[in-house]
C-alpha cells in the first residue's frame, strides 16, 4: 500500500510540474513564433540576443525557489516548522536584494547590455526595448518563481501548476493581441511576457486567502547560515541557468561569425525548441524534488530510492518517444519559424534540430541527478554536474567543433557535452547511493 501511495504521489507531482514547465516554456516559444512571423529574421535575432538576460532573471528566480523550497521541505520533514518558516523569510530577504539589482540594470544599462549581447545596428532598438521591459519586471518574475515553489513544497502542486499555466496562456493570448490587432510591435511582445507573472501571482494569492499556507510573513532575524543554506541548495540550478545564458551568448557570437544574423536566427529556432523539450525533463526533476527532500528529511530512504526508480523509468520512456518525434518532425519545426522561407535557414535549422536533440536522454538524466544530490544535502556533486554541462565542457566544445565542422559543429557541442557529463554524473550517483542507502535507515547528517 505504501508503494502504491508513493507512486500516486509521484505521478501527481511530476505530471503537474511537467504541465507547468511546458506552460512556462510555451510563452517563450509563443513570443519567438509571433515575433519571427511578424518581423522576420531581424526580429528572431533580436529576441534571441535578449534571451541570455531573461536567462539570468530565470536563474535567480529558480535559485531562490529551488534553494528555499528544498530547505523548507527538509525542515518540515524533520518536524521543524520554525526553521521551515525561516527558510521562507530568508528567501524573501535574498529576493529584495536581487530585485534591486535587476531594476537598476533595467533603468540605467539596458542599451549597454543589448550591445554587450551582440546586437548590431539592424536589431539594437528591438533588443534594447525587450531587455528594458524584462529587467523592469524582473522583481515580479523572481517573486512568482519563489511563491510557486514554496506553495508546491507546501503540498499544493495543483495550484502552483494552475498559476503557471494560467499566466502563460494569458501571455500567449496577449502576445497575439498586442502584436497583431493592436500593432504594438516588440513592445507588445515584451509587455505580454512581463504581465505573465502578474496573472500567475493573482492565482497563487488564493492559497493565502484560504489560509492553507504553513509559511507566513513573520519577523525573523537575519542569520547567515540560512542564507548560505538556501544559496548552496540553489546554486546548482543557478549555475545551470546562468551558464546556459553565457553559452547562448557564445553560440550567438560563433553563429554570427559563421553566418551573420541568419546563423543567429537558425540557432534561435533550435534553442527555442529546446526550451520546450527540456522543460518536460525539468518538470520530472522538479516534480521529484519535494518528495525527495521530504522523505530524505524524514529518514525514509527506501522511499527516496523508490521515487528515483520511478523518475528514471519515466525519463527514459519519454526521451525515446520525444527524440523519435523530433527526428520525424525536424523539417516542420524549422519551417514554423521560417516565415521568409529562406532555404538556407531551413536547411541549417533542420539539420541542427536533429543533431542537437540527440542529447535529450543525457540532458534529462543530468537534470534528475542534480536534483537528487541537492535534495539529499549533497549539493557539491550537483554543483559539479551543473558546472560541467553549463560551461566547463560545452564552451570549449563549441569553439572546437565550430572550427572543425562549422555550423554542424555548433549543434554537435550540446549532445557531446551532455554525454560526457552524464557519465560523470552516474559515477557520482553510484558513490552517493552507496553512502546513502547502504548504512543505517535514518537520514545522513547534513553535509
Helical content class: over 70%
Number of strands: 0
Structurally, the number of domains stands at 1
Instruction: Count helical runs.
Output: 14
Counting helices, strands and paired strands, the structural category is: mainly alpha
The SSE string, one letter per element, is HHHHHHHHHHHHHH
Percent of residues in β-strands: under 5%
Largest β sheet strand count, sense and barrel closure: none
Q: In angstroms, what separates the terminal alpha carbons?
A: 33 Å
Global morphology: globular
State mean pLDDT (0 to 100 scale). Answer: 84
The poorly predicted ranges are 440-447
Q: Over the alpha carbons, how many angstroms does the gyration radius reach?
A: 21 Å
What would the keywords be for this entry?
447 residues; mainly alpha; 14 helices; 0% strand; disordered C terminus
Amino acid at each position: 500500500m505504501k508503494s502504491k501511495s508513493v507512486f500516486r504521489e509521484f505521478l501527481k507531482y511530476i505530471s503537474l510540474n511537467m504541465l507547468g514547465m511546458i506552460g512556462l516554456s510555451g510563452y517563450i516559444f509563443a513570443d519567438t513564433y509571433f515575433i519571427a512571423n511578424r518581423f522576420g529574421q531581424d526580429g528572431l535575432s533580436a529576441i534571441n540576443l535578449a534571451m541570455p538576460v531573461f536567462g539570468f532573471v530565470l536563474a535567480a528566480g529558480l535559485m531562490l525557489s529551488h534553494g528555499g523550497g528544498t530547505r523548507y521541505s527538509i525542515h518540515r520533514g524533520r518536524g521543524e516548522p520554525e526553521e521551515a518558516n525561516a527558510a521562507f523569510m530568508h528567501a524573501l530577504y535574498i529576493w529584495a536584494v536581487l530585485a534591486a539589482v535587476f531594476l537598476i540594470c533595467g533603468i540605467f544599462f539596458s542599451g549597454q547590455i543589448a550591445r554587450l549581447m551582440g546586437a548590431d545596428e539592424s536589431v539594437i532598438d528591438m533588443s534594447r526595448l525587450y531587455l528594458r521591459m524584462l529587467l523592469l519586471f524582473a522583481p515580479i518574475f523572481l517573486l512568482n518563481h519563489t511563491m510557486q515553489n514554496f506553495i508546491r513544497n507546501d503540498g499544493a502542486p495543483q495550484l502552483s501548476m494552475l498559476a503557471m499555466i494560467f499566466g502563460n496562456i494569458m501571455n500567449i493570448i496577449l502576445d497575439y493581441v498586442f502584436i497583431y490587432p493592436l500593432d504594438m510591435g516588440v513592445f507588445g511582445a515584451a509587455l505580454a511576457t512581463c504581465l505573465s507573472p502578474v496573472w500567475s501571482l493573482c492565482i497563487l494569492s488564493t492559497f493565502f486567502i484560504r489560509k492553507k499556507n504553513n509559511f507566513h510573513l513573520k519577523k525573523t532575524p537575519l542569520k547567515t547560515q540560512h542564507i548560505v543554506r538556501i544559496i548552496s541548495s540553489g546554486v546548482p540550478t543557478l549555475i545551470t541557468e546562468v551558464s546556459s545564458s553565457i553559452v547562448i551568448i557564445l553560440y550567438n557570437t560563433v553563429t554570427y561569425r559563421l553566418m551573420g544574423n541568419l546563423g543567429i536566427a537558425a540557432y534561435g529556432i533550435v534553442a527555442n525548441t529546446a526550451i520546450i523539450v527540456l522543460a518536460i525533463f525539468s518538470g520530472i526533476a522538479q516534480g521529484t524534488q519535494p518528495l525527495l527532500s521530504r522523505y530524505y528529511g524524514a529518514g525514509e530512504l527506501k522511499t527516496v530510492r523508490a521515487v528515483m526508480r520511478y523518475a528514471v523509468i519515466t525519463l527514459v520512456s519519454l526521451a525515446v518517444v520525444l527524440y523519435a518525434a523530433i527526428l520525424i518532425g525536424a523539417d516542420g519545426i524549422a519551417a514554423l519559424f521560417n516565415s521568409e522561407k529562406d532555404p538556407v535557414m531551413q536547411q541549417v535549422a533542420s539539420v541542427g534540430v536533429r543533431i542537437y536533440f540527440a542529447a535529450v536522454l543525457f540532458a534529462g538524466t543530468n537534470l534528475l541527478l542534480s536534483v537528487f544530490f541537492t535534495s539529499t544535502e549533497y549539493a557539491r556533486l550537483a554543483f559539479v554536474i551543473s558546472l560541467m554541462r553549463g560551461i566547463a565542457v560545452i564552451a570549449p566544445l563549441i569553439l572546437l567543433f565550430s572550427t572543425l565542422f562549422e555550423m554542424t559543429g555548433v549543434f554537435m557541442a550540446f549532445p557531446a557535452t551532455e554525454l560526457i557529463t552524464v557519465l560523470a554524473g552516474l559515477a557520482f550517483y553510484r558513490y552517493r547511493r552507496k553512502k546513502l542507502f547502504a548504512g543505517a535507515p535514518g537520514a545522513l547528517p547534513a553535509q
